[in-house]
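Dear H.,

Thanks for agreeing to be a second pair of eyes. The structure we're designing against is below in C-alpha cell form, covering all 519 positions.
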C-alpha cells in the first residue's frame, strides 16, 4: 500500500497540484474502510433513460453498456477480460430513469492495474462497430422478445409504467422501445456519450481501502470529461380519473399478473416517506409473509406465489429480497404487485367437474381484495399493536439494506440525490420518532383507491371475459375446488362474499395485444 500511495502522489503531481482541481470537478462521496481488502468506485451520472432523445429510446442504456462491455483505445473487450480475470475484479453499468451508475469493484492490491482500465473505459472508450452491433442486438431482442416471454411479473410492472407515465420521458423502459433501439446508430452513441456523461452531472463514490491521493487523482482525471448538455427530464404526473385498466392479451400465458398504482408526491427526500414505509410494510412488504396482502391472498386462499406493495420503484423484485440502490427518482408512485393468479382455462382443466363452466379466473377477485385492503387502511388506519410490531421489524430490517461496501456506497450516492447526508443512518432516527398518528395521517394524505392505473398480463382466452367483469363491475366470486371450499372457516366465506361484490371505481378498460406493447 505504501508503494501505491507514493505512486499516486507522483501521478497526481504530474497532472497538476492536488488542490488545484478543475472548477467543474465532480463531487466525491467517500466511505473509507481502512480494514477492507476491497475498493469500490461508483460513478453516478444524472442522465438516465429520461434523457433519451425522442425517437432514440434506449440510447442511454446502450451507451452505458458499450462503455462497460466494450473496450478502450488500448485494449479490446476480450483483452480486458483476459487482463482482469486473474484479479477477480468486476465492473458493470446500470441505467435507470434519472441516473446511470457505473460500478467498479476490485482488490486493493490491484488498484494500480485496475485504475488504468477504469480510466480508459470512462475517458477513452473504443466504441467499435463490432461491440455496438452485438450489444444493440441483445438490447433489441430483450425489448421485442425477452420481456414478453420471460417474466409476466416484470412485464406487468413495465407495462404499468408505460401507462402511468404515458406521454412523458419516463414512459419507455430503460432499455427503450423497439423502434427507438432500431434507430440508434454508433454515431448516436458517440454523440450521447459526449453530451450526457459530463463532469458537471457526475457524482463520484469511493468505498474501501485506498490511498488519499487516489480520490484526488480520480477527481482530477474525470474533470476532463466535457460539460454535459443533456439532462434527465422529470415528469409531473397526476392520477387518472377513476381506475383505468389495460389488459394485455398474450398467447399461452399461464396466469394473470396484476400491477396497479398511482402517483404520490413524496420520496425519500421527504420525512413522510418513513411513515409510509411502516404503512407499506404492514400492507405488503416485499417477499415477506406477514404482510396483509400476502396473508389474505396467498396464505389464506393459496391463490399465487406472492402479493406485495411498494412506495417507490423496486428494482428486479423477482430476484432481490431487499431494495437496491441506484434507482433514485423524483417522480414516484405507490403500487400493488400481485404475482400471477390462475386463469379460467387452467382452473377448468384442473377441476372439470366442479369448475367446468368457469369463464373468468381469479384476477378480478384478487384485484378487488387488494384494493379493498388498501381502502381499509385509508379509512381505518393501523392499530397501535400493528404499528408497534411493524415499526420494530423495520428498524432492524433496514439495517440489512447496506450489507456490502458497494450497497453502502450506493445508498450514500442516492442520499445525495435526494438532498440527504446518509439516508440509512437517518432512517432509524425517523422511524424511532414516528407515532401511530403520524403514520395514519400519512396514509390518509398520500394513499387513495379511487383513482389508479392497473395493468394485467393474461392469456388471450381470458382477456375479453376479464374485461367484461371489470368494465361492468359484476360480482367475481372466488373459485375453489370442492374439497377446499368445504373446509373454509366461516370468516373467510363471509369475507369472500364481501370481496366478490366490492365495487371498483373503473372508468376505462382496454385490451391490448402483446405485439403492440413497447413498440
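And this is the sequence the design step returned. I haven't edited it by hand at all.
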Amino acid at each position: 500500500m505504501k508503494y501505491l500511495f507514493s505512486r499516486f502522489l507522483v501521478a497526481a503531481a504530474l497532472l497538476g497540484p492536488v488542490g488545484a482541481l478543475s472548477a467543474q470537478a465532480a463531487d466525491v462521496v467517500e466511505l473509507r474502510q481502512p480494514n477492507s481488502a476491497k475498493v469500490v468506485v461508483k460513478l453516478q451520472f444524472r442522465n438516465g433513460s429520461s434523457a433519451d432523445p425522442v425517437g432514440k429510446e434506449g440510447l442511454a442504456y446502450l451507451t452505458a453498456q458499450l462503455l462497460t462491455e466494450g473496450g478502450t483505445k488500448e485494449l479490446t473487450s476480450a483483452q480486458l477480460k483476459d487482463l482482469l480475470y486473474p484479479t477477480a475484479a468486476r465492473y458493470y453499468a446500470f441505467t435507470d430513469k434519472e441516473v446511470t451508475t457505473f460500478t467498479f469493484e476490485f482488490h486493493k492490491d490491484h488498484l494500480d492495474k485496475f485504475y488504468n482500465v477504469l480510466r480508459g473505459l470512462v475517458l477513452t472508450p473504443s466504441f467499435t462497430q463490432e461491440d455496438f452491433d452485438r450489444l444493440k442486438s441483445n438490447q433489441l431482442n430483450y425489448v421485442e422478445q425477452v420481456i414478453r416471454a420471460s417474466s409476466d411479473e416484470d412485464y406487468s410492472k413495465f407495462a404499468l409504467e408505460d401507462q402511468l407515465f404515458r406521454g412523458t420521458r419516463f414512459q419507455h423502459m430503460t432499455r427503450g422501445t423497439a423502434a427507438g433501439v432500431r434507430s440508434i446508430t454508433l454515431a448516436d452513441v458517440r454523440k450521447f456519450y459526449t453530451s450526457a456523461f459530463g463532469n458537471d452531472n457526475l457524482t463520484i463514490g469511493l468505498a474501501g481501502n485506498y490511498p488519499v491521493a487516489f480520490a484526488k487523482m480520480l477527481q482530477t482525471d474525470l474533470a476532463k470529461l466535457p460539460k454535459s448538455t443533456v439532462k434527465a427530464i422529470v415528469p409531473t404526473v397526476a392520477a387518472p380519473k377513476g381506475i383505468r385498466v389495460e389488459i394485455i392479451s398474450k398467447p399461452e400465458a399461464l396466469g394473470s399478473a396484476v400491477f396497479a398504482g398511482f402517483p404520490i408526491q413524496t420520496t425519500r427526500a421527504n420525512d413522510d416517506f418513513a411513515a409510509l414505509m411502516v404503512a407499506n410494510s404492514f400492507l405488503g412488504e416485499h417477499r415477506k409473509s406477514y404482510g396483509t396482502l400476502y396473508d389474505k391472498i396467498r396464505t389464506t386462499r393459496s391463490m399465487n406465489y406472492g402479493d406485495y406493495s411498494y412506495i417507490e420503484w423496486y428494482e428486479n423484485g423477482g430476484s432481490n429480497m431487499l431494495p437496491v440502490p441506484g434507482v433514485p427518482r423524483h417522480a414516484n408512485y405507490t403500487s400493488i404487485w400481485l404475482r400471477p393468479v390462475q386463469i379460467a382455462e387452467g382452473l377448468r382443466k384442473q377441476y372439470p367437474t366442479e369448475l367446468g363452466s368457469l369463464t373468468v379466473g381469479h384476477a378480478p377477485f384478487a384485484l378487488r381484495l387488494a384494493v379493498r385492503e388498501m381502502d381499509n387502511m385509508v379509512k381505518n388506519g393501523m392499530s397501535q399493536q400493528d404499528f408497534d410490531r411493524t415499526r420494530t421489524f423495520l428498524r432492524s430490517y433496514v439495517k440489512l439494506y447496506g450489507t456490502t461496501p458497494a450497497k453502502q456506497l450506493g445508498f450514500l450516492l442516492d442520499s445525495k440525490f435526494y438532498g440527504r447526508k446518509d439516508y440509512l443512518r437517518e432512517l432509524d432516527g425517523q422511524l424511532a420518532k414516528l407515532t401511530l398518528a403520524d403514520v395514519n395521517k400519512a396514509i390518509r394524505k398520500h394513499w387513495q383507491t379511487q383513482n389508479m392505473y392497473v395493468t394485467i398480463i393474461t392469456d388471450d382466452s381470458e382477456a375479453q371475459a376479464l374485461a367484461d367483469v371489470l368494465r361492468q363491475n359484476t360480482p367475481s366470486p372466488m373459485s375453489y375446488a370442492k374439497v377446499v371450499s368445504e373446509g373454509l372457516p366461516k370468516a373467510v366465506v363471509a369475507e369472500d362474499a364481501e370481496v366478490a361484490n366490492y365495487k371498483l371505481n373503473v372508468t376505462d378498460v382496454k385490451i391490448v395485444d402483446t405485439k403492440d406493447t413497447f413498440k
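Two observations from my side: DSSP finds 20 helices and eleven strands in the chain. The domain at 243-516 is CATH 3.30.830.10 (Cytochrome Bc1 Complex; Chain A, domain 1).

Warmly,
E.
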